[in-house]
Amino acid sequence: MKNGTLIIAEGTVVPDELKLESHPYAESWRIVTNYEGYGLNRHLSRAGWTFLYMAQELKVTAFGFATERTFRKAFTTILKKLHSPKFNCLEIIEATPRRFLGFPYVSVSGHARLIQQR
Question: Taking the model in full, what pTM does it have?
Fold first, then answer.
Protein backbone atom coordinates (compact mmCIF):
# COMPACT_ATOMS: atom_id res chain seq x y z
CA MET A 1 0.00 0.00 0.00
CA LYS A 2 1.36 3.40 -0.93
CA ASN A 3 0.16 6.98 -1.15
CA GLY A 4 -2.49 7.34 -3.85
CA THR A 5 -3.57 3.69 -3.76
CA LEU A 6 -7.23 3.08 -4.59
CA ILE A 7 -9.11 0.21 -2.98
CA ILE A 8 -12.44 -0.56 -4.63
CA ALA A 9 -15.35 -2.70 -3.46
CA GLU A 10 -15.85 -5.87 -5.48
CA GLY A 11 -18.80 -5.61 -7.81
CA THR A 12 -18.51 -1.85 -8.27
CA VAL A 13 -19.85 -0.99 -11.71
CA VAL A 14 -17.49 1.09 -13.87
CA PRO A 15 -17.67 2.08 -17.55
CA ASP A 16 -16.59 -0.71 -19.92
CA GLU A 17 -14.02 1.51 -21.65
CA LEU A 18 -12.20 2.07 -18.34
CA LYS A 19 -10.49 -1.36 -18.32
CA LEU A 20 -9.90 -1.22 -14.59
CA GLU A 21 -7.19 -3.63 -13.42
CA SER A 22 -7.12 -4.83 -9.83
CA HIS A 23 -6.20 -7.70 -7.56
CA PRO A 24 -7.82 -9.01 -4.35
CA TYR A 25 -6.83 -7.23 -1.16
CA ALA A 26 -9.26 -7.89 1.65
CA GLU A 27 -12.63 -9.55 1.94
CA SER A 28 -14.73 -8.07 -0.91
CA TRP A 29 -12.16 -5.33 -1.67
CA ARG A 30 -9.63 -5.01 -4.50
CA ILE A 31 -6.55 -2.81 -5.03
CA VAL A 32 -6.65 -0.90 -8.31
CA THR A 33 -3.32 -1.37 -10.08
CA ASN A 34 -3.59 0.84 -13.16
CA TYR A 35 -5.03 4.10 -11.76
CA GLU A 36 -4.56 6.50 -8.89
CA GLY A 37 -7.23 8.97 -7.75
CA TYR A 38 -6.58 11.81 -10.19
CA GLY A 39 -6.26 9.55 -13.24
CA LEU A 40 -9.38 7.55 -12.41
CA ASN A 41 -11.34 10.75 -11.82
CA ARG A 42 -10.28 12.09 -15.24
CA HIS A 43 -11.26 8.88 -17.08
CA LEU A 44 -14.58 8.54 -15.25
CA SER A 45 -15.42 12.17 -16.03
CA ARG A 46 -14.72 11.63 -19.74
CA ALA A 47 -17.09 8.66 -19.68
CA GLY A 48 -19.83 10.78 -18.07
CA TRP A 49 -19.47 9.25 -14.59
CA THR A 50 -18.69 10.90 -11.25
CA PHE A 51 -16.04 10.08 -8.66
CA LEU A 52 -17.28 11.81 -5.51
CA TYR A 53 -14.85 12.76 -2.79
CA MET A 54 -15.96 12.50 0.82
CA ALA A 55 -14.35 15.45 2.61
CA GLN A 56 -13.80 13.81 5.98
CA GLU A 57 -10.25 12.45 6.21
CA LEU A 58 -10.03 9.11 7.95
CA LYS A 59 -6.89 8.42 10.00
CA VAL A 60 -5.87 5.24 11.77
CA THR A 61 -2.84 3.78 13.46
CA ALA A 62 -2.05 0.07 13.53
CA PHE A 63 0.74 -1.26 15.70
CA GLY A 64 3.19 -3.69 14.16
CA PHE A 65 6.00 -3.66 11.65
CA ALA A 66 5.30 -2.21 8.19
CA THR A 67 4.10 -5.51 6.79
CA GLU A 68 1.15 -6.34 4.58
CA ARG A 69 -0.67 -7.70 7.64
CA THR A 70 -0.34 -4.40 9.53
CA PHE A 71 -1.57 -2.38 6.53
CA ARG A 72 -4.59 -4.71 6.15
CA LYS A 73 -5.33 -4.20 9.83
CA ALA A 74 -5.24 -0.42 9.29
CA PHE A 75 -7.51 -0.72 6.24
CA THR A 76 -10.03 -2.78 8.21
CA THR A 77 -9.99 -0.15 10.95
CA ILE A 78 -10.66 2.63 8.43
CA LEU A 79 -13.67 0.71 7.13
CA LYS A 80 -15.06 0.51 10.67
CA LYS A 81 -14.69 4.30 11.08
CA LEU A 82 -16.85 5.11 8.07
CA HIS A 83 -20.30 6.32 8.99
CA SER A 84 -21.89 5.78 5.59
CA PRO A 85 -22.13 2.54 3.65
CA LYS A 86 -22.70 4.58 0.47
CA PHE A 87 -19.09 4.57 -0.69
CA ASN A 88 -17.44 1.98 -2.93
CA CYS A 89 -13.84 3.15 -3.03
CA LEU A 90 -11.15 4.32 -0.63
CA GLU A 91 -8.24 6.51 -1.71
CA ILE A 92 -5.17 6.21 0.49
CA ILE A 93 -3.62 9.64 1.07
CA GLU A 94 -0.78 8.52 3.30
CA ALA A 95 0.55 5.14 4.40
CA THR A 96 3.69 5.56 6.49
CA PRO A 97 5.65 3.22 8.76
CA ARG A 98 6.79 4.94 11.97
CA ARG A 99 8.22 4.31 15.43
CA PHE A 100 7.33 5.70 18.82
CA LEU A 101 9.65 4.90 21.74
CA GLY A 102 10.98 2.02 19.68
CA PHE A 103 7.55 0.50 18.95
CA PRO A 104 6.76 0.13 15.24
CA TYR A 105 3.41 1.17 13.81
CA VAL A 106 1.88 2.34 10.56
CA SER A 107 -0.14 5.48 10.11
CA VAL A 108 -2.73 5.37 7.32
CA SER A 109 -5.09 8.10 6.20
CA GLY A 110 -7.54 8.23 3.33
CA HIS A 111 -10.79 9.49 1.90
CA ALA A 112 -13.91 7.56 1.03
CA ARG A 113 -14.86 7.89 -2.65
CA LEU A 114 -17.99 7.00 -4.60
CA ILE A 115 -18.01 5.90 -8.22
CA GLN A 116 -21.41 6.37 -9.84
CA GLN A 117 -23.07 7.00 -13.15
CA ARG A 118 -24.44 10.54 -13.61
Answer: 0.86
